[in-house]
Write a structure and sequence with these properties.
The protein is of the alpha/beta class. The protein has a domain of about 270 residues: Rossmann fold, CATH 3.40.50. It has 14 helices and 15 strands. Strands 1, 2, 3, 6, 7, 9, 10, 12, 13, 14 and 15 form an eleven-stranded mixed β-sheet that branches. A hairpin with a 6-residue loop joins strand 4 and strand 5.
Length: about 475
């Protein structure tokens, strides 16, 4: 039997119901306005076509997400969706390293993106091994000061490092997903190379911490993948010097002097150690591309001006100068990016440089690189944290890179002392040995035969197989 409500109380009950209805209406209106605003932002970021671009069937978006209102820091992104059922495919966030190098210049334009730059930067042509065949790829330029990303507080460019990069990148992902709500609960993977060996695990850790307090707004992070990754000061340095010696790039004398003189654990080494590094590169290496010791270097007399690139960059774990970069391989691609992305028509199509940054767009920011103020000594503790949380981890390594070589990666990973699940074996792509791999409890390692520092640049077919197997969570093919 239903309770009888006294007549005197009915007006109060109706009032409560009315107020609840009004609150619901206000919430609904606010939500609709919120969704409309983000839909407008999303449409404003849509790329109709890039100059010199061939016809494509997939959607592209690019633009800015403000990550710090007070400082006016905004990060630039370029999303290339898959042409095949994008709503059913995961999101892969790609980061390049440096620190200070552009994901648009490298990851998007010469590695895993859908386009390649034509010789002389006259236009674009399709990359038939693009990763957007299997996933939606989001290229993020981080931190502020890299590529088109900017800060209105100029001192930010003189005071940045690992911590702020991870914090701003997390803020970007949160706010970007507000703009693109269809990606909010999608499977997310983070990938990158070189100094992104810091960025990728650090961003994954930030996401895990965010998820612990975010409830239904949590980011569906499933895995990370890094290539030729800066991992651990000591083992990276030891492995690099060992690689130089084992590949006959330096003499026995220089090798022993480096081993006995340099303190590989230190962030900055002694003048004596730096002199030995300089001697090795200037007197013993010769005119080679350290990013692929068997590839031809870019000819400096080609007439295209090159700004700050990885030729002039330093990796924080090692005080050395880098010199930059086969059939089908153009070692000057980096130079074409400098031309193409400084074109006003290109920037307009990208919705980029709308605040008119007071410097020329460069593939790498030497200012950021030289003023990098904090870097973690070792990423191995983060790997242990991610493994415990069940995050899928793949580490791959091109085996002709002398900058962050395969020996450095193997020395570092060995310190994790992981149990072997699938013993070492050759993996195949197109009926050829693509490299070698071993599967551990919590982590998969793979080498890529004949690939340099940028694996997808030198071995695009093998790199596509890597991302396919990684996303499926399956070991690389044995035949």
């Amino acid at each position: 039997m239903l309770p009888i409500i006294p007549m005197a109380k009915l007006p109060s009950l109706f009032l409560i119901i009315h107020l609840l209805f009004l609150a619901f209406q206000l919430t609904l209106t606010h939500q609709n306005n919120h969704n409309y605003y983000h839909k407008q932002q999303q449409e404003a970021d849509r790329i109709t076509s890039l100059p010199g671009q061939p016809n494509v069937t997939f959607h592209q978006f690019s633009g800015y997400v403000t990550v710090n209102q007070e400082a006016g820091r905004a990060l630039f992104y370029w999303l290339t969706e898959t042409p095949n059922n994008p709503l059913s495919k995961p999101l892969v966030i790609w980061l390049n390293g440096g620190p200070g190098c552009s994901s648009v210049a490298y990851g998007a334009s010469e590695e895993v993106g859908p386009f390649r730059l034509n010789k002389g930067a006259s236009g674009l042509h399709l990359n038939k091994f693009s990763w957007n065949k299997v996933a939606n790829i989001l290229f993020l330029e981080t931190p502020a000061g890299v590529g088109f990303s900017y800060s209105n507080r100029s001192s930010d460019l003189l005071d940045t490092g690992d911590r702020r990069t991870a914090e701003d990148s997390l803020e970007f992902v949160i706010r970007w997903m507000e703009r693109f709500p269809r990606y909010k609960h999608r499977e997310v993977y983070i990938a990158g190379e070189s100094y992104a060996g810091h960025y990728v695990p650090q961003l994954a850790r930030q996401i895990m911490r965010y998820n612990s307090n975010s409830g239904s707004n949590s980011i569906n992070l499933k895995g990370i993948m890094v290539g030729n990754a800066v991992t651990d000061n000591y083992y990276d340095n030891l492995g690099t010097v060992t690689y130089w010696w084992s590949h006959a790039m330096i003499s026995d004398k220089t090798y022993h002097q480096l081993i006995n003189t340099c303190d590989f654990k230190r962030q900055k080494n002694s003048n004596e150690c730096e002199t030995l590094y300089s001697y090795a590169m200037d007197q013993e290496f010769g005119n080679i591309d350290q990013y692929n010791i068997y590839a031809p270097p870019c000819n400096k007399s080609d007439g295209i001006h090159l700004g700050a690139t990885r030729q002039t960059m330093r990796l924080p774990h090692r005080p050395v100068r880098m010199s930059r970069q086969i059939s089908g391989y153009d070692p000057c691609t980096e130079k074409y990016a400098e031309v193409y992305y400084n074109r006003p028509d290109v920037q307009k199509a990208f919705h980029a440089n709308i605040t008119r940054i007071p410097y020329k767009w460069t593939a790498c920011s030497e200012t950021l690189n030289r003023n990098w103020n904090d870097t973690e000594v070792s990423i191995l503790p983060i790997y242990r944290e991610l493994i415990s949380a069940g995050i899928r981890i793949w580490v791959f390594s091109g085996d002709v890179d002398s900058v962050v070589p395969v020996t450095a990666t193997r020395y570092a990973l060995a310190q994790l002392k992981l149990k072997t699940k699938v013993p070492w074996y050759p993996w195949y792509v197109n009926k050829q040995v693509g490299g070698w791999t071993e599967v551990y409890e919590g982590l998969t390692f793979a080498s890529v035969r004949g690939a340099g520092h940028e694996v997808p640049l030198f071995k695009p077919r093998a790199a596509l197989q890597l991302i396919v197997s990684f996303l499926k969570g399956q070991p690389l093919p044995k035949a």
